[in-house]
Amino acid sequence: MISFLPIGGGNEIGANSYFINFNGNGIILDCGIHPQKTGLESLPDFDLITDKSVDYCLISHAHQDHIGALPFLVKKIPYVKIITTPQTRALAELTLHNSVSILKKEIVEPGFEFYSHDEVDLLIKMIDYKENKNKFELNSYHQLKDSQVNCTFFDAGHILGSAGVLLENNNYKIFYTGDINLTAQTIQPPAQLPETKIDTLILETTYGATDSDLYLDWNSESFRFAKEANKILNSGGSILIPVFSLGKMQELLATIWLLMQKRKLTTVDIYTGGIGTKINLAYDYNRFVVNRVDEDLELNAIPQKDYYKISNPEEFFKNPCIVLASSGMMIKGTSSFTFTKSWIKQKDSAIFTVGYMDTNTPGYVIANSECGDKIQLTEYDEPTEVKCKINNFKFSAHARREDLLKIVDKLKPDNVILTHGDEDAIGWMGAAILKKNKNIKVYTAITGKEIIV
207: which residues sit within 8 A by CB, 6+ positions away? Predict the structure, then answer.
């Protein structure tokens, strides 16, 4: 018997965390923080596992919505054993330290217990790491007789270090996709999947409601990007691209540089900054030991200027340039949010969005605006007319919905638990799976609702 209990991020994207009782073994899959919430509301509901025996926490990758709450879990369960890939462990050291500073600025909730940089250092030392495709044992203190669980990580093709998680016990197999991508990006090659039938598949559904006809492959989308970017740059304008510091910054930086090298894109200054530049080094350091499209591509060798050295955003408009600024959804207080307030006033410049935007973010407002619209980035901002061009591109690090169905076809699960998507995404995926495979049992992950399979 398998008990699956979402303690965060059930039928939404954010605070992803799932507790599994696998024949007496207590395993948490991911431990994220919700990027659109603050304080206790941003965390998984750890009270749901107060009476559970927890042995392990397996982290699929280092994005904040999958790892950001890990320090809070360790405060609650100090003995929990944490395992990631080596690359996720290295990235966690950067991202968790960065989140200490951000949380202290954002949260004023009374009684909210922060963690310190020293605690992050101790946490990182606690993390064990395992290479992809190397089977290892999870030896629970609470396990029943013959209930040892074997675990294997599989490259998920999402970002550096991302992994799907295969759990095996007495010939019963569970596979958790985490965030997965079956098509190549500029740096990351496609995901790798187990070569075996799976009993229960825990499947992400991020783009389940998105028509894949709207997507080009990464290479074709990069040429469409270059065509539109050249119109702006050659007319003297500059381009702001909001990106996540981990993953999207590295992929877009590499994409833009290669387009310039191939003379498909006008060569201008590229601005980056903050933690993203440190993450670039992690990508470079690991390029010979992980799957890469081109292991010789070195991000730190790409000429870049630091946007933190620009005191007045008007400097960006003196000469055409491209600015890759975090955060990807233009969250208030971030560089991309700050720069946007200057950018939307520039009639010759443009903002290019390149990925998913949560509906409750300033990024969503921008992505759904046109030149001439009056917008409010937040409810506290004055309405402002958009004078710059807005262009939306889909450089996705998540699988298309047809590719998610291919995962189901390949792994042939008896049960599918749908996670990491909004109501429409989960609804489309569930209906599509059942239409094609009437014998599969499909479940929706809802925070606090236990699923027994």
Answer: 356, 396, 398, 399, 400, 401, 404, 425
In this structure, the number of other CB atoms found within 10 A of the CB of residue 212 comes to: 13
The sign of the torsion formed by the CA atoms of 410, 415, 418, 424 equals positive
Euclidean distance between CA atoms 353 and 388, whole angstroms: 13
Choose among 319, 285, 295: nearest CA to 305: 319
* Segment 77-90, tens digit of pLDDT: 999 999 999 999 99
Global model pTM greater than 0.85: yes
8-state DSSP, 43: S
The CATH label, of 3.40.50.1000, 3.60.40.10, 3.40.50.10890, 3.40.710.10, for the domain at 229-392 is: 3.40.50.10890
pLDDT reported for residue 109: 59
Q: At residue 225, what are phi and psi to the nearest 5 degrees?
A: -60, -50
Q: What's the chain's average pLDDT?
A: 92
Q: Where are the alpha helices (DSSP H) in 293-422?
A: 335-343, 362-367, 401-411
Q: Is 128 exposed, middle or buried (0-12, 13-18, 19+ CB in 10 A)?
A: exposed
Full DSSP string of 54-79: --EEE----SHHHHTTHHHHHHH-TT
**Cα-flanking dihedrals φ and ψ of residue 451, to 5°?**
-115, 125
Distances (CA, A) of 47 to 14, 53, 73, 207, 306: 18, 13, 11, 30, 43
CA dihedral 70, 73, 79, 85 (to 10 degrees): -20
With 0-12 / 13-18 / 19 or more C-beta atoms within 10 angstroms meaning exposed / middle / buried, residue 417 is buried
Query: What pLDDT was estimated at residue 252?
Result: 98
